[in-house]
């Protein structure tokens, strides 16, 4: 009943359906089998592009924007559950379905928009990784950017070892990020009562203009367009009999559990970043606009007090590198999914992955050479990358909601009425907020 429409899926064909699911196993054994894709999804919600916004939110408004982090995470869980359900039920990812269900001209337009989104996402990952290499190993920034261009070849090697190895490596990198920031937050000794009170929304978020702007930055940068494509594809790595509705239902159930657990981890990381900003930098009037600023501030006793130490700075840089590298893996996979899904690009796997990375790294290298490796100038690219993501978001979210609403396509697994309503409201709100953020960025409002 739920076979792929129009042939076998080409999305990540080398790993599609490659992981056997044990029949008749208990809850925990089955969950372990389905655990992994959620970690790849979650890194998109805690990539280097989110760090500055979250820490700045805490530094400026203490714990008040934690409610925004919470709401953003709930929206992410909703959209990602729909993306994975779409892939499991249809056997096709979002890019393939868009290609099949739109005209060629519209498909090419959406492919270009989505490629720009992948490039925008990669910009933050490349910059984050390159700056981390500079901070840890004193590697010149331009050299670090070039190194990140070829770390994609490592992914090719990992794919030969099996998709589970990639999931394990990404989960390990995520674990490093969590432990680093948990340790730094414990040292910072945040006000626990105020911290939990911050998860309750306040009207100041709307009435206070600077707070509203940061709110838009947090929300607008949270739901990444490429993650919706990625989720719809890697949900198919588990072998599922689509002619058996019970198999499909079980796959959806356990995939959602995995996704929600991992997105909860992403929520914790983003909360820790904001809490760290609040506990260490609120009221210090520190300039925290760049990764290097944060690195230096953590070892400056005039800013963070008695806990300042070079070790804190180094841990921050290590977490930044872990974030950049884990995001690099998922960004490259997303690039392949989009090329295969939208335009059915046929080329050797290594060349396809290298092309995806080079498309993203080229503008960063040009900027780095033009500005002679100046971190501040290069980090300005982060602002423009968020604008591209804002533009691309509705072109991914709206088709996702439309297709998962379609009973002819999804059968009994189409969105329930409350899910559809929540998804449309969330999507429309995200689109409005992103348009507002774009207008603010360019000084129109």
Structure characterization notes:
- The protein has 445 residues and is mainly α.
- The protein is 76% helix and 0% strand.
- The chain is built from 22 helices and no strands.
- It has helices at residues 27-34, 37-42, 48-61, 66-90, 94-101, 104-137, 141-150, 152-161, 163-188, 192-197, 204-207, 209-222, 225-234, 245-281, 291-297, 301-304, 310-343, 349-370, 375-379, 381-405, 407-410, 417-441.
- The protein starts with 26 loop residues before the first helix and ends with a helix.
- Mean pLDDT is 83; it is low at 1-7.
**Using only CA atoms, what is the Rg?**
21 Å
Question: What is the helix content?
Answer: over 70%
Low-pLDDT sequence parts:
1-7
- Estimated structural class: mainly alpha
Quote the beta fraction. under 5%
| Mean pLDDT level | 83
Number of H/I helices: 22
The secondary-structure element order is: HHHHHHHHHHHHHHHHHHHHHH
First-last Cα distance: 51 Å
The total of beta strands comes to 0
The geometry reads as: globular
The biggest beta sheet reads: none
Assembly state (oligomeric): single chain
């Amino acid at each position: 009943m739920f076979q792929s429409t129009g042939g076998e899926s080409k999305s990540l064909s080398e790993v599609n359906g490659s992981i056997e699911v044990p029949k008749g196993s208990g809850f925990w054994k089955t969950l372990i089998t389905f655990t992994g894709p959620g970690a790849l999804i979650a890194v998109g919600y805690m990539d280097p592009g989110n760090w500055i916004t979250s820490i700045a939110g805490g530094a400026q408004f203490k714990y008040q924007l934690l409610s925004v982090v919470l709401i953003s995470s709930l929206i992410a869980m909703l959209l990602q559950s729909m993306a994975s359900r779409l892939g499991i039920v249809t056997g096709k990812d979002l890019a393939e379905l868009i290609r099949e269900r739109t005209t060629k001209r519209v498909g090419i337009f959406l492919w270009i928009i989505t490629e720009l989104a992948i490039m925008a996402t990669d910009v933050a990952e490349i910059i984050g990784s390159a700056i981390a290499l500079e901070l840890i190993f004193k590697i010149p920034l331009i050299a670090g950017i070039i190194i990140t261009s070829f770390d994609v070849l490592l992914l090719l090697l990992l794919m030969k070892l099996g998709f589970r190895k990639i999931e394990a490596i990404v989960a390990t990198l995520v674990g490093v990020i969590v432990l680093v920031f948990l340790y730094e937050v414990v040292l910072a000794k945040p006000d626990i009562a105020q911290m939990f009170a911050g998860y309750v929304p306040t009207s100041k978020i709307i009435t206070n203009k600077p707070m509203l702007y940061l709110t838009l930055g947090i929300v607008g940068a949270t739901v990444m367009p490429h993650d919706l494509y990625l989720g719809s594809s890697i949900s198919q790595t588990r072998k599922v009999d689509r002619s058996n509705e019970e198999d499909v239902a079980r796959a959806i159930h356990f995939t959602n559990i995995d996704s929600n657990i991992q997105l909860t981890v992403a929520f914790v990381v983003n909360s820790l970043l904001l809490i760290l900003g609040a506990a260490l930098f609120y009221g210090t009037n520190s300039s925290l606009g760049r990764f290097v600023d944060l690195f230096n501030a953590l070892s400056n006793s005039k800013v963070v007090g008695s806990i300042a130490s070079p070790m804190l700075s180094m841990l921050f840089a290590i977490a930044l590198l872990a974030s950049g590298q884990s995001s690099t893996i998922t960004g490259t996979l997303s690039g392949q999914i989009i090329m295969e899904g939208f335009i059915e690009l046929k080329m050797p796997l290594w060349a396809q992955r290298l092309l995806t990375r080079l498309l993203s790294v080229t503008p960063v290298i040009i900027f780095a050479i033009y500005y002679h490796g100046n971190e501040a100038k290069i980090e300005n690219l982060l602002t423009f990358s968020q604008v591209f993501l804002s533009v691309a978001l509705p072109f991914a979210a709206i088709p996702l909601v439309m297709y998962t609403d379609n009973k002819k396509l999804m059968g009994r697994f189409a969105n329930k009425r409350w899910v559809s309503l929540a998804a449309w409201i969330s999507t429309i709100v995200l689109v409005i907020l992103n348009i507002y953020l774009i207008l603010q960025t360019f000084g129109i409002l």
